[in-house]
Each structure stands twice: as structure tokens, then as C-alpha cells.
Amino acid sequence: RPLRVRVDLIDTGEEPNLQLSLRDETESRRVEEMRREFIANVSHELKTPLAAIKGYAETVELAVQDDPDAALHFMKQITSQCLRLERLVHEMMQLARAQSGPANLHLSSVSLTEIVEDAIRTYEPVAIANDLELVPEVFPGKAKIIADREATLTIANNLIGNAIRYTPAGGEVRVSIEEDSDRWVLAVEDTGVGIPYSEHQRVFERFYRGSRNEESGKGGTGLGLAIVKHLTQAQDGEVSLESVPGQGSCFRVRLPAVASAELNRV
Ligand code: ADP
């Protein structure tokens, strides 16, 4: 990336003195560029369902007299687009919160096991409805971590939700908790469509949707993994991905364990 330098010649008012001031603006320009790009993305994402709602509503107006069945069909489309808008706004709020870092989180000693069990309870019916097996591996005790309960639940929900969404019927989603020195690791593994290596970084970018999944019309927001990444980093954790297209994916989130010395006190 080229270094952007701002050069100012300042007249100090005391002729013939001029001051030369140099400022590296690389970072501030980058932030400004990201902000502009984000707003452009948000406008686009909001405009699409709004345009659809407007179109459907106009069609309903025309159809309501002569063709009540068609009107009902378009009303359902309106409801579905409203749900999409609602989800977008909710996820954008979650992302904004995640991006503002640890300041918005309440870090305390919480049980990763209990949080993951909560997420599994939420997704069990979804897995059954999609003819998938959701397999919780036997979890090791409480797996105490220093984390924000809500944020960690969002991470688990997003990963399990994605694993279910991107795994065809008959497949399996395996959720486990592993110990790794001073970290507890949540692993969500699926036998789904997988992610090409060239997209491993990009899937964590906001609004990025996999190339093939846009075609398949899965209708996601592209925010889920960006939220996972920012919430994990805000909690001093790391997220990683292994995947083989056509075979499946495994997302791992490592979060700081409560030190064993402290465990006796909490
Ligand atoms: P989306 O709302 O599109 O699911 P995410 O940020 O959660 O947004 O994911 C970004 C992209 O990463 C998805 O569009 C999809 O292509 C890919 N992806 C995420 N999770 C999985 C998974 N478990 N298996 C395959 N692809 C996935």
C-alpha cells in the first residue's frame, strides 16, 4: 500500500518564515475508505428488500380486487422481505457492537459448556427440520472461560446456524469443546458444501457471501462471520477455519480459559 503523506506549507505570519508540516495519513484514509464502503454496502443491502417490498405492495394494490390469491402470494413475499430487513438491522447492530471492541462487553468467568448447550437447544429443531444430525460431543465439565456470555452465545449460534445452512440433508454437524493449554476451543464441524481456500479470508469480511451460495439463493446477510470474528477478537480470542470444498468445514474459536489458580475462587 502506498504511503499517503499530507504536506502543508504554513505561513507563520512572521515573514519570511514558512513551516513545512508532513503527516502520514495512510491510516486515517484507510478508515475513511472503509467507512464509505460500509455505508455503500449498507445502503445497497437495505435498498434491495425495500425495492422488493414497494414492488410487491404495488402489485397487491392491483390484484386485491380481481385476484385475491395472487394478492395473498405477494403479501407473503412482503412479509418475507420484512423479515430479511429485520434480520439485517439486527445483525448490523450486533456488528457495530462487536466492532467497538471490549468496551461494550462484560467479561466474567462463564461456562463455555453451558453456553454451547444453550445454542444446541436452539438449533436442535432446525437441524431436525433440515434432516441433519446435530451431534454434541461429550463436553468436558464447565470449560470456564473469561468472556461475555451474550457475545459467546452469538458466536456459537452463528457458527452452528451456518453449519446447518450450508450442509445438505442427510449430513452431520458436530459441536465439540477442546482444551488447548490456556484456551478453551469451540469447534463446529460440518459435512457440508465447504469453502474454497481462496475464500477463507474473505468469508470473515462483512457482507461477503460465498460465490456459489449467492447463486443458490441462500439469502444470508453476509454478516454472521464478521460478527463472529469481531466478537472473538474483542474477547482476546482467535477464530480459524479449515475446509475442503465438497467435504465440509470446521470453524474453531479459541477463548481464554480461567486460569486454574483462579478456578478455586470462582
Ligand atoms: P451468510 O449470511 O451469507 O451466511 P456469513 O458471514 O455467516 O454470511 O458467511 C459468509 C459466507 O461464508 C457464506 O455466504 C458462505 O458462503 C460461507 N460459509 C459460512 N459458513 C459456512 C459453512 N459452514 N459451510 C460452507 N460455507 C460457509
Automatic annotation (TrEMBL):
The EC number(s) this enzyme carries: 2.7.13.3
Reaction it catalyzes: ATP + protein L-histidine = ADP + protein N-phospho-L-histidine
Record key words, sorted: Kinase, Membrane, Phosphoprotein, Transferase, Two-component regulatory system
Residues included from the entire protein: 181 to 446 of 446
Sequence ranges assigned to domain Histidine kinase in this UniProt record: 41-259
Domain of life: Bacteria
Protein name as it appears in the record: histidine kinase
Organism, scientific name: Rhodopirellula halodulae
